[in-house]
Amino acid sequence: MSWLARLDIDVEAAYAAGILGNYDWHKRLWECYPDAAEAKRDFLTRIDHLERSFRIWIMGKRKPLRPQWCSAAGFAVKEIAPSFFNHRHYVFDLRANPVKAVLQRGPQGEPLLGPKGKRKRGKRVPLVRPEDLRAWLTRKGEVRRRDEATGRDVGGGFRVMDERPLEITRAVQTYFSKNGKEAYHSAVQFRGTLEVTDRARFVESYHAGLGGAKGFGFGLLLLAPVRLAAHHTY
């Protein structure tokens, strides 16, 4: 069982509630789960900036509740039935943070090592070229290998359909302030059609989200089943 909620809130109401930026949304959306303030974050969000309002999506396996700063008219929640995942094709809308890890090297080109002799974690840099962004999304869908620890396949369980249009927006930097320090994420929006290739993996990747920075409104797939022949959704 999982749930999808939509919150519509105008800019003035958000500012009056003290929600001034992405890090504020990151913290305040916990109010949709008032009895789980100390729990590990197990829900996905998406924040769309409209002309004079925000539209927030929340998806998780626990039912979200309406926070006080959102009006009753601006809140809707529905259960996602298991049968929703029985279709073969879906149109999708994804706001993601596509990055790659660049190996850190010393002055002679040698890999930098940490205190325990292991290579330092690669610095994450955003992907910006359309061909790199398309390749990133393709990799997220592929079932690539078997995880030896769990014995399960790794990958998203879907393929992006090249025979259908894929819209990729230009990367936009979204800034936020945390503990007095400024940082940013690179936001890219993908819209297209996917085909399910491994249903169990697809359901798992849907609930887990795609890519990084999930706590800041990235990785949630908005889906609608589609009949390709008739070009109509179910």
Gist?
The protein has four helices and 15 strands.
Describe this structure in words.
This protein is mainly beta and 234 residues long. The chain folds into two domains: 2-80, Alpha-Beta Plaits; 83-100 and 126-233, Crispr-associated protein, domain 2 (Alpha-Beta Plaits, 2-Layer Sandwich). 15% of the residues lie in helices and 39% in strands. It is built from four helices and 15 strands. The strands form four sheets. Strands 5, 10, 11, 12, 13, 14 and 15 form a seven-stranded antiparallel beta sheet that branches. Strands 2-3-1-4 form a four-stranded antiparallel beta sheet. A two-stranded antiparallel sheet has the order 6-7. A hairpin with a 2-residue loop joins β12 (172-178) and β13. The relative contact order is 0.20. The mean pLDDT is 86.
Count the beta strands.
Answer: 15
Main beta sheet, described?
Answer: 7 strands, antiparallel
Order of helices and strands: EHHEEEEEEHEEEEEEHEE
CATH architecture of the largest domain: 2-Layer Sandwich
Quickly name the level 1 CATH class of the largest domain: Alpha Beta
Task: Give the termini separation.
Answer: 21 Å
Integer tally of domains: 2
Shape: globular
Mean pLDDT across every amino acid position: 86
State the CATH superfamily name of the largest domain: Crispr-associated protein, domain 2
What's the total helix number? Answer: 4
Low-pLDDT stretches = none
- What is the beta-strand fraction? 35-45%
Q: Supply the helix-strand structural class.
A: mainly beta
**Rg over CA atoms:** 19 Å
Topology-level CATH name of the largest domain: Alpha-Beta Plaits
Helix content: 10-25%
